[in-house]
Amino acid sequence: MDVTSTQLDVVDLTPRIGSEIRTDVDTLLGGREAATIRAVLEQRGVVFFRGLDISDQQQVAIAKTLGSVVANEGDDGIYKISLDKNVNQRAQYLKGSLFWHFDGSLQPYPNLATLLRAVKLSDTGGDTEFCNTYATYDDLPQPDKEAIADIQVVHSAERSQYYVTPEMSYEQVAFWQKSPTKVCPLVWTHQSGRKSLLLGATADYVVGMPVEESRALLARLRDWATQPQYVYRHRWQLGDLLIWDNTGTMHRALPYAEDSGRLMHRTILAGEEPLL
Ligand code: OGA
Ligand code: MN
């Protein structure tokens, strides 16, 4: 893409999604290129930096140049992503990350973006895939765009857990049903005027549509959105810092063993626009 910057070298990895940005730690920490990085992120869905060798504190400092960092209780903007419950008590919920989703679908505002840094890798598996949900909307045939324009979808934590544990016990169902559900539009019209599709593992059913029709529609659109031309697969190297635009992409981790040691340090940027 055409980026006017002397400090950044942007290398597109596929036509529709994913760029490597080559720069140095000081440039990122200084924030001088933050507006350009945000613009590239919005256009390309995913950007990553390789070989920076940064600390947790530097990751958070870089994140702060790009937006407003969301700190969870008891952390300083670094959240450990691991499927090992000794490392993260919410490992069971995180197993849902192996299925296409966007982050914060149950929050009032979806997160703007997520930064992920590879701290330990799995010997096998554990790549992460991303698809561009702006491009997938843009390419939909016009009749589909018209048919889905006003559709609302109920998202639930319970739904995403059926992917992880297909035969949940009554207690498990009751547990996940305690998490409030959220209604999201299927088509998000952004303040920029661009539109993206909101799908993913938490997408449970379409409001007011017969169950079979609703499941068929959500599956058909997910198939459409995750076709190879919309997908970038990141093959992690230790220390990679990757950022995805959580408002215009979905992502999933490819399978890896719970005890593989794989560890990612995540920093979230707060959402800036409502779902309309
Ligand atoms: C996440 C997530 C994917 C991965 O952190 O939200 O989905 O590859 N991570 O760990
Ligand atoms: Mn995620």
UniProtKB/TrEMBL annotation:
Residues 11-267 form the TauD/TfdA-like domain. One of its GO terms (molecular function) is dioxygenase activity. Gene3D superfamilies: Clavaminate synthase-like. Its cofactor is Fe(2+). InterPro entries: TauD-like_sf, TauD/TfdA-like, TfdA_dioxygenase. It holds the Pfam family TauD. Keywords: Dioxygenase, Iron, Metal-binding, Oxidoreductase. Belongs to the TfdA dioxygenase family. This is Taurine catabolism dioxygenase. The lineage of its organism: Bacteria, Bacillati, Actinomycetota, Actinomycetes, Mycobacteriales.
